[in-house]
Amino acid sequence: MRSPVPLVLAVAAFALTACGSTPDASSTTVASTTADTSPDTSTLATDSSSTTTAADGTIVNTWVGPAADLTTLPIGTPHVSTTGAAVGNLYVCDSGNPNGGGAFKAGPWLDEVAGTWDLTQKVSVQGALDWPMAQYSETVEGDLRVIASNGLPVGNVTGTFPVAADDPAFNYDRNPNTIGESALSVSLPVTPTAGATPTCLSKGAIGVLRNGVALFAPVDERNRDAVAYETQDQCDGHPQQTGVYHYHDIPSCVRDASTGASTVVGFAYDGYPIVAERSANGDLPTNADLDECHGRTSPILLDGEVVTTYHYSATYEFPYFIGCFHGTKVA
């Protein structure tokens, strides 16, 4: 087992506020793990999707319907709920701040009348900054998966923040925050436990990617679809008020590099893996393949072994990677 990279770590778990802006003004190799043996309380939207493993252990995913149309993705805001979980919805713990930060103007990639947005036309914050000081470590120690990072992206770039006045993104979202290091330290169960019922997602960090960056729920401070409205950088990230760089979905730089049938790209803070899954022709699943927490139980490649376990799945559709906690949040 490799020792974690030396880091300056927080004593407590990572606890952060949500992002906002003013309106006008490579992972280590870890030991193998066992599958989730807790009862599966999820309810699939359909039972037509399937995952099989060939004799050589190859994972083969088959999805229910066609791939998502990236030019007419549904805006997720109407699917944000504080009362409970449902397929395609995001179950949040608060009703949002109507005066909160974020994009102050809808970009031309949004069609609010039709309720859709065009990912292929969305503006990104300019810049391509490297972070050679970025650090991430992950080890399995008994029944715990111990993860630590300094919050900066390992192997990926960021945009230039604050957003410059001559950046086209400035016309829609004037994020005034600066990216800084943010100590992250969390111990997650190797074998998570399913909850009796789904639980809501708070603002701030609800998971971590294997490039060391925090995952926030896919809404801004007003509970709008953050991926559709806010302007992030070319890797779909941006900083919040205290400088914590984060993503609201599985970012394009990670998602597009994950071309296999099963790539664990991170972990939610209940311990369940977050997986980029693809069919034989390279398509991600859609909401029709997933349950109310945006996950499913199927074979995945985890810690060097194919195991059957519950996991969250990356999609192009809202809520993008998680809809609620399937298990018990521990961080």
TrEMBL record:
Region (Disordered): 21-52
Xref: Pfam families: YHYH
Domain YHYH: 186-279
Protein name: Unannotated protein
Organism ancestry: unclassified sequences, metagenomes, ecological metagenomes
